[in-house]
Records
---
Amino acid sequence: MRERVYRTEAVILRRSDFAEADRLLVIATPAGKRRVVAKGVRRTTSRIAGHIELFTHATLLLAVGRNLDIVTQSQVIDPFSRMRADIARLSCTYYAAEIYDTFTHDGDESRPLFRLLVDTLTALDQSANPDLVLRSYELRMLQIVGYRPHLHQCAVCGELLTAEADSFSPQLGGVLCPRDRHADRRSMALGGPAFRLLRYLQSQPLSAVDGLHLSAAVRSEVEGLLRAYLYHLLERDLKSVAFLQDVMRGE
Ligand SMILES: [Zn+2]
C-alpha cells in the first residue's frame, strides 16, 4: 500500500480551475506525469497558490486522495523568473512542456525525461540561445522515448554517413546516404552546416549550445527538419508551434 503522504519534485505542466476554489494540476514528476488537486488555491488566503504557478519547479507534499492526490504543501525550487518576463523564452517553455506532455502517459515512470525537462527549463531561463536549447531538447527527448533520428548511419542501408549526405527523411527516420536519397520522394534537402549542427546537438550536452554562433538560416533549417520529423511521429503539429513561430518572427 502507498503511504498516505509523500513528497515529490515536480514541474507544473498544466492548470485548470476545479470546483469552487481549487485547481486541477497536471504535473511532471520523476515517477511520471500525474493529475493532482490543489485545494482552495484560488482564494487570496492560500499559502500554496504562489508555489504552483505554471512551469514552476517545486517540491510538493501530497496526500493520497480517493481519486486524485491532494497538494498539501509546496516549496518553489526555481520560479524561472527571467523566462516569465520574456515572451520568447516563455513561448519556448510552453513548447517544451507540450512536448513532454505529448510524449508521456500518466504514471509512466521516467526519471531521465523529468531531469531533461528540468534541465531544459533551467536553460530556457538562462541560455543566450533558447531556440537551440529547444533543438537539443527535441533530440534528447526523441532519444529517451525511442525515436532517435539516424544521423550517423543511413536510415535505409545503415552505411556510415559522410559529409556528402544531403537528404533527410522524416518518414524513414533520419539522414539518407547519396545512394538512397530517392528512397523517400518526400525527403528534405539537408545542407552541410545543418547536418553538422544536428550531429553536434545530438552528441553534446545541453550546455554546449551557449557557445554557438550560427546564422538564422541554419537555425531555421534545423528547426524545420526536426519539426517535420515530430509532425510525422505525432501526425499533427503541436498546439504551441504556431504561437512560438509568431513570437520568434516578431522579434
Ligand atoms: Zn543508404
---
Amino acid sequence: MGDSYTGNATCNNCGYSLHGLDVDGACPECGRAVLTSLQGDSLRFASPDYLLTLRRGITIAIAFGIASMVIVFVTEVVTTVIGRLGPGSRQAGLWVGLLMSWIAAAGFIQFTTVDPGLGDAEQPGSARRLARLGAVLMIGGELASALAGMLPGAPTRLTLPTSAAGLTLPWLASLLSGLVMWAGFLFYFFQGLLYAEWLFRRARDPNGVRACRRYMILLPIIAVFGTCVCGLGPYVAKTLHWHLLWTLRTRIADSLAVQRMEQVIADNVARGATLPPPAQDPGEGRQS
Ligand SMILES: [Zn+2]
C-alpha cells in the first residue's frame, strides 16, 4: 500500500477529490491513476475525453468558419459584382452562410469546454468563460440582426437618423442587435486568444504563447487597414486566426498521441509482454 495523498488536488478526469487516496492508487469514480492527476496542468496529463472535445471543437470551428466565409464571398460576387441571380438568391446565400457561422460558433463553444480536472480552481471571469460568452452573444446578435433586417421599414444601412421620426423600432432593433454582435465578437476574439494562450502554455509551446499575444495587436490592424486593399483585410486576419487555432489543434493531437503511446507501454508492462526476438539474419542459415 502506497502513501496516502494529503493535498487538495482533484482527479483531472472527473473532479473527484484525491485527498486521502493512495498515491499509487486510482480514482474510485473513474479509475484514472492518482499520479497522472498530480502531474500539473500540462495537456499531456489532461483527460483524453477533454482533449478530444477540444480537438473536435477546433475542427468544427475552422471547417464551418471557412465554409461560411466562402459561401458569403461567392454569394456577394455572383449576385452583386457579376449581377446574376436576383436579390432572393442573395438573401438565401447569406442565410446559408450565417447558418454555417453558427455551427462554427457551436464548435468554438465546444473548444471552450471546462477542464474537469481544473474546473474548481477556475475564476468566474476566466478567459475561457468570457470567450464562450462571446460566441453565444455573437450567435444571438447575428440572429437578432438578421431578424431585425426582415422587419418592415428596416434600414438597409445603419446611419444615425436625422430627425426623431427616424428613431423607429426596426432601427433600434438593428442598432441593439448590432451592438450585441460586436460585443460578442470582441469577447470571442480577445478573450479567445487569451484562452488559446493558456492552452499553448499547457502544451509547453512558447511560440504559440507569443503568437497569441502578437495576434491580439496584429490581426485587428490587418483587418482594419487591409480593408482598403479590395476589402481583403478581414479575410486575411480570419485565415491567420484559423491557422493559429489549427496549430493549437496539432498540439492537442500530439498530447493525445503521447497518451496513447504511454497506454500501449503500460498495457505491455501489465501483460508482462516481452519484446519479439530479433529477426534472424538471412545470411546466417546459408549453406556453404
Ligand atoms: Zn476520476
